[in-house]
Design goal:
Number of helices: 6
Largest sheet: none
Distance between the termini: 78 Å
Structural class: mainly alpha
Helix content: 55-70%
Number of strands: 0
Radius of gyration: 30 Å
Amino acid sequence: MKISPWISAALVAALFVSGPLAPMAAFAQAPQAGQERVPVDPVEKMLMPSVEPITSKDPTGGDAVAAGLMNVVYVPGKVIVCTAGVLTSTVLMLMTFGSAYRAARGVFLEGCSAPWALTAAYVSGKIPGPGDPGYDPSGRH
């Protein structure tokens, strides 16, 4: 089967325009001042309009219920992790004859530091948690 060189050239040109030169084609089709922007993707028409993000961090009743449900798993898990931290810290101190006290303290505090129970303020974000800006690992608020 022999393919015409013109068909090959047209195919290469179409791929080239849709690949590296696509941003130039999109810029050329940009709406002018006063023209409405028409979505290119039909799925974009079906998307819900964006809403303003929630900025209030005051705890709600739902946050209190969620905290109670999460505590069913959180509190026993905290006991297990703290116990493992105490045992690991003890073994670390014994193995290093007390010279790894900073590492042992870090392992201990990782599992045994506050909070021991979640409240609605933790769930709502009013009190920052690990990974949040302003988080205080000492547990003081």
